[in-house]
Amino acid sequence: MNPYAGVVSSLRTAWLAGKTRGAEHRVSQLEALGRFLEEQRGPILEAMASDMRKPPLEAELSEILLVRNEVTHALNSLSSWMKDEFVEKNLVTQLDEAFIRKEPYGVVLIIGPWNYPLHLILVPLVGAIAAGNCVLVKPSEISRGTEKLVAETLPGYLDKDCFAVVTGGPAETTQLLENKFDFIFFTGSAQVGRGVMAAAAQHLTPLALELGGKNPCYVAEDSELESAAARLVWGRCFNAGQTCVAPDYVLCSPATQEKLLPALGRAIARFFGPEPRESPDLARMVSDRHFQRVRALLGSGHVALGGQTDEAERYIAPTVLADVQPSQPAMQEEIFGPVLPIVTVPGVDDAIAFINSRERPLAVYVFASDSKVVQRVLERTSSGGFGANDTLMQMTLLSLPFGGIGSSGLGSYHGRFSFDTFSHRRACLLRRPGLEALNSMRYPPYSERKMGLLASVSQVKRKGGCSLQ
Predict the structure, then answer these.
(1) Residues marked as catalytic
(2) 313: number of Cβ within 10 Å
(3) pTM assigned to the model
């Protein structure tokens, strides 16, 4: 028997009993999740430090504060989210009720990654709880400290009939995915995402895939280079670059590269001091394998800034690679480290063509003082999200959906979008049992007269004229 069949069956029993459907249960579990964040703050920070020496401020912001905001927002909004959404009716159904009911999928699986090991399981968990689902959580085995914390502590806060945590590596995840779930939420690499999608297809299970990709950043010649450099360094080095929406490479003209490099150097020195290795504000690679992978990318182009490494500490200095060629290794995979390649292009149209020649990324960034340049990049590229004159910040807004497109992901979440992702929108029409004479026109025997009557009461008519110029 599959080793996870029992826990999945137990969750399904709770789901079929309707235990998670009521608003009171949803509120109680969201409040419990908020208590977990408050009461386990110290252990959370310790786990982040043990996993990748994540600076306390970065851990507090990304793993606690942003998740707490999601919990609070869901508690503030749950009653309105759960309400039936009444819709327009045609003439035939004017006396009836037509609405969309948001229903939970049932038993859902959340598989988290290692780079933000708490945030990226708890934020989707907020949406799954708010939508009324039973949930099985699988944290990453790579971030061992956080995995242990979640497995040993989180179940003590939530209803054990409706929520469970399982641990393990790739073999265990493969066995887990053999079970039938009603929805799967996966965050991780595109390679693993394909396997998750294939497993979901065996049961025709809907899913959301939050993947990654190489996020381009075009820096125009008229940019405020000092602020652009600071925001680029911060976005690239936050969590030691192990961030799916980090700027992955810069596109700019050769002249802009020449002016940008010293500005980047000043930002690195201002943030991390003359010896970044000694700074308490720079995290480390999560594992030896990831350290070795990122270090191997340093041979692309030439090292203009940084480049120092220490395998014993899994330390990689904030590094800028200049004059990188599109065919070189640093441009063939998502970097996921504090390394920023620069690829030179003549101008904005060439940058747009370069972006569009590659897979659609999770984010596109542009730095430009001219709003027309910003709009040109926005209108002529495609990505999960877009940021102008900053990096990462779009994902902090609960009012914006977060997710990819194409190879960078499928589906979105954050705020209301999380609730929608974990909800089935059920179409409901409640008709009156009487007034049968009004239905006679749709019954056989058919006639041209009946067709005319049906068209007159059912047809959607165009309003006004075309407003496009």
Answers:
(1) 210, 244
(2) 12
(3) 0.96
